[in-house]
Amino acid sequence: MAPASLLEDPWFVRAFDRFWLRLYAHRDDAEALADAPSILKLLGVRVGGRVLDVACGGGRYARALANHGVRVTGVDLSPELIDVARERSPGLPGKPDYLRCDSRRLPFARQFDGAVSMFTSFGYFDRREDDVALFQGVRRALKPGARLVLDFLNEASVRAGLVPEETIDDGSLRIHVERRIADGPHGPCVFKRLEAVDVGSGHVAAKFEERVRLYTADEVDALLAEAGLTPVGERLGSVQGAPFDEQASRLVRVAER
Q: pLDDT, tens digit, for every residue of 131-181?
C-alpha cells in the first residue's frame, strides 16, 4: 500500500507528468508560436523584456515567447514537466530559465515586464484564498505598470457544452474521458477523469482526475482586484482578440499592476 502522504497528495501534484503531455499533445508548440505575437502585444513587452510564465508545464509558451527575443522564466510545481521544459529549450534566443516552485509562493519582486498564465493553469486549489495568493505573487513579481495575460476557461461555455463521456483513439492508446460539474470543497468545479488503455495489451497506461474551479468572468475580475491587479480593456475570447460571449471557449483577461 502507498504511504498515506502519497495518497493524500492533491490531484495537481499527481497528474502532471510526461504522460500527461502525451494526452494533450494537440496543445503543441505550433499553437503557442501562433499565439505569441498576440500575447506580447497584449503585454506591451518588447524584445529583451522579461516575462514570467506561471505554471509553464513543458515550456511551450516560454519557448514561443523566447523565439521573439523575450527573456522568459517559467515556473511549475511538476519536476517532470520542468525537466521536459529544459530538455526542449536549447539554443533559443533568450533561452528560458525554469524553476520548480509552487505558484502560490512565487519568489520574485518587481523583476518582470509581464506575466502569462496559459491554458487554464489556475483554479486547481481547494481554497479561493490560494487562487488569490497566486495572483498576489504575480503582482509582487511584476514591475509597476506591467501586465498579466490570463488564459482561462469560459464558465458559461463549459456548462453549455459539457460532453459527459467520450472515447478517443490516439495511436496505440484508447482514452476514455468522463466529465461532470459538481460542487467542490468551496464552489462549483468541472471534474474530468481520464483513463488511457494500451490497445494492444489492454493494460491501463494511466488514470487520473483533473478538477478546475468554475469561476465566472466577474469572479475572475474580483480575484484579480483582490490581489491588487487591475483588469484592463475588454474581456476577450482568445489572445488574438476574438469577442468574449457565452459561446467563446476561452476567457482571456489582461490585468495590470
A: 999 999 999 999 999 999 999 999 999 999 999 999 989 888 899 999 999
Paired sense of beta strands 142-153 and 250-256, if any:
antiparallel
Q: Which residues contact 80 (CB under 8 A, 6 or more apart)?
A: 16, 17, 18
Angle, helices 217-226 vs 128-141, to 10°: value is: 60
Q: Which domain holds residue 199?
A: 157-212
Who contacts 204 (Cβ-Cβ below 8 Å, separation ≥6)?
195, 196, 197, 198
Place of cell 467520450: 166
Instruction: Give a yes or no: residue 89 inside a domain.
Output: yes
Tell if the pTM clears 0.85, that is, is over it: yes
113 and 230 together in one domain: yes
- Residue 6 — pLDDT band, cuts 50, 70, 90? very low
Strands 142-153 and 112-117: parallel
Q: What angle do CA 172, 17, 195 make, to 5 degrees?
A: 45
Same structural domain, 121 and 205: no
CB of 115 closer than 8 Å to CB of 198: no
For residue range 45-98, list pLDDT tens digits in order: 999 999 999 999 999 999 999 999 999 999 999 999 999 999 988 776 667 899
Residue 149 falls inside a structural domain = yes
- Three-class SS state of 9: coil
d(CA 199, CA 138): 43
Residues 119 and 180 in one domain: no
Residues with Cβ within 8 Å of residue 107, at least 6 apart in sequence: 101
Of 134, 148, 65, 142, the residue nearest 108 (C-alpha): 142
